[in-house]
Amino acid sequence: MVSYLQVQNLTRSVGDKTLFSNLSFGVCEGQKVGLIAQNGTGKSTLLNILGGKDQADEGQVVFRNDLRIGYLEQTPDYPLDLTVIEACFWHGNETTNLIREYETCMASESQEGLQDILDRMEQQKAWDYERRAQTILSQLYITEFNKLLSQLSGGQLKRVALANTLIMEPDLLILDEPTNHLDLQMIEWLENYLSRSNITLLMVTHDRYFLDRVCSVIIELADETVYTYHGNYAYYLEQRALRQEVARAEIARASNLYRTELEWMRRMPQARGHKARYREEAFYELEKQAHRRIEEQQVRLEMKSTYIGSKIFEAEYVSKAYGDLVLLKDFYYNFSRYEKLGIVGNNGTGKSTFVKMLLGLVKPDSGRFVVGETVRFGYYGQDGMQFDEQMKVIDAVRKTAEYVDLGGGRKLSAMQFLQHFMFSPQQQQNYIYKLSGGEKRRLYLCTILMQSPNFLVLDEPTNDLDITSLQILEQYLQDFHGCVIIISHDRYFMDKVVDHLFVFKGNGIVKDFPGNYTQYRSLTPDPSPKRGEKNESTSPKRPAEVVNGQSSTVNGRKRKMSFREKQEFEALGKEIDDLENEKADIEAALSSGALCTQEIIDLSKRLPIVNDLLDEKSMRWLELSEIG
Predict the structure, then answer these.
(1) Cα separations (Å) of 146 from 86, 157, 536, 569?
(2) Phi-psi region at 52: left, alpha or beta (left = phi > 0; alpha = psi -120 to 50)
(3) What is the CATH number of domain 313-520?
(4) d(CA 449, CA 437)
(5) Is the backbone of residue 223 left (phi > 0), alpha (psi -120 to 50) or beta?
(6) Beta carbons within 10 angstroms of residue 567's beta carbon
(7) Residues with Cβ within 8 Å of residue 455, at least 6 apart in sequence
């Protein structure tokens, strides 16, 4: 295989903290590599070094000659006075630099070297760069090319940066947390794009479904060592468990031998002869082996939550709009005790505004939220908590609470609670400014959970958390004896925790779905059964299976379609066929690169409308197919 990248003995420290030491690994042509490590181990720093944004203390990074590299940073940085299309030319890459070189040459009197520039422009398809930019931006639902970046949301800015990276058609694509701030529609688009393309990829992400479906190689940084697994995320989990089992057995054997050798060392305090020196040296190596520790998954932490009554909250015909943007319209819902609700939907459909209205941070235009007297909210917001950076980690948590009540007379100290969330005693004495972004997020989460709330409202809690932290949080929420509302684009996390969904469709439409995200997704057009066949899906259905107010069963027996329903069912089949054909035509046109700007804009506006119609009509077709 052709080597694209070789990292050789790379070392990087920040102050007195070593992020990684003598790090070595490689990426070959065609590989899709996922990099996994805990927060604070320097993943983003490593990618910044590979992307040319930072430098290592020691070691070297070797790329294949003439390799075109695209790098998406975790937090893209652009001058906010640029327009969307200008941003696609702002970050210097080989093609945009060549375009600037061409413009400079054309402006000069001599135009020296023009022919060479023209040849390179032709070779790199630079003439078509702006049109490619518009096409990819449109596929990412960015259609206002002259809009200022200062007017974009965080998710829209991430999409512009992603488009900027993909436009140049790199040989090696380096992505740092590409799914952060993207909505589910965009995550699935990117997942399909990367899994179907032949591009070589190195990325850091904590989205486990994304890792599983895209990556063919997993590299784990742990115990100051690099472990490489040639398989997807599911394969990695299996092999990692086997590796740890072997390591535990080795440590057990070393510990037994260590006790024997320790006794020998104590019996021989005098100077030893030459023949015994090798045994003494071997003893110190054995000591290191015996004192190794394998990171264990934390035990489940069942905490006592504050008592919560039967009255939780009632949303009484709530409406909210910002100008022409309608977020909620006459929304009614009575929240039940111990519900665990997930909220999904595209960016800008009102998910965060909804929870802020529930918490009293934003006022509805009409209607109201009536909250029960015993409800005690714990709110984790996207913006995070503002810490005093000069404060120590343990002091920040003790400021919230000294102890956590586990119930039954059991308590955890602040120090013990932090250890459960992977802050070692040494890390607890660190100043907050020394923490990575993910570690600060984890600390913020600890301060929320230590307040012993009985109703957790978590807005994007998974951003920047490593996989181990996510697993701990999942277990905590599964055992949590209270109510939970989660806004998240992490599909794996949602599947583990929630029991039903609010799907924000836009224009004030919110659908209540009784199941997790994968079950919801299985009922959208792509995985649905072919029309004309019975639906054999084993995914959970709506409990009552109500169709337009009528149950699909009568006295426990399956009822037949009415004449009107048969006509509707047949008409839906043709309508769905037409919509699918229209969708395919639009996608083919957008990918052709042959459209003018106005055509790109018009088709990009039509595509989400077609998708929504397909969702609606396919769901109705599935409901009717259940009647038979």
Answers:
(1) 8, 14, 48, 44
(2) left
(3) 3.40.50.300
(4) 19
(5) left
(6) 11
(7) 308, 312, 375, 376, 377, 378, 482, 483, 484, 485
Chain centroid offset of residue 487 CA:
12
580-622 residue pLDDT tens? 888 888 877 876 767 777 777 778 778 878 887 887 887 777 6
If you search the block for the tokens 């997942």, which residue do you land on? 191
What pLDDT, on a 0 to 100 scale, did the predictor assign at position 563? 56
User: For 54-80, how does the pLDDT look when each residue is reduced to its tens digit (9 = 90+)?
Assistant: 999 999 999 999 888 989 988 888 888
Rounded Cα distance between 31 and 24, Å, is 17
| 555: pLDDT strictly greater than 50 | no
Q: At what angle do helices 154-167 and 184-196 cross, to 10 degrees?
A: 10
Whole-angstrom CA distances from 562 to 150, 287, 489, 550, 569 are 55, 79, 40, 11, 10
**Alpha-carbon 352 to chain mean position:** 17
At 121 the pLDDT is: 82
Say which residues have a Cβ less than 8 Å from residue 580's Cβ, sequence separation at least 6.
Answer: 525, 614
The two structure tokens encoding residue 415? 């120090």
Q: Where are the alpha helices (DSSP H) in 140-198?
A: 154-167, 184-196
Amino acid at site 495: D
Q: Are 600 and 143 in contact (CB under 8 A)?
A: yes
- For the residues 183-211, what does the mean pLDDT come to? 90
Please state which CATH class domain 3-235 belongs to.
Answer: alpha beta
Per-residue pLDDT of 101-121, as tens digits, reads 887 888 888 888 888 888 888
Lookup: tokens for 442: 């984890």
- Region of residue 9 (phi > 0: left; psi between -120 and 50: alpha; otherwise: beta): left
Q: What is the pLDDT of residues 2-50, one digit of tens each?
A: 999 999 999 998 877 888 888 999 999 999 999 998 888 888 889 999 9
pLDDT bin (cut points 50, 70, 90) of residue 449 is confident
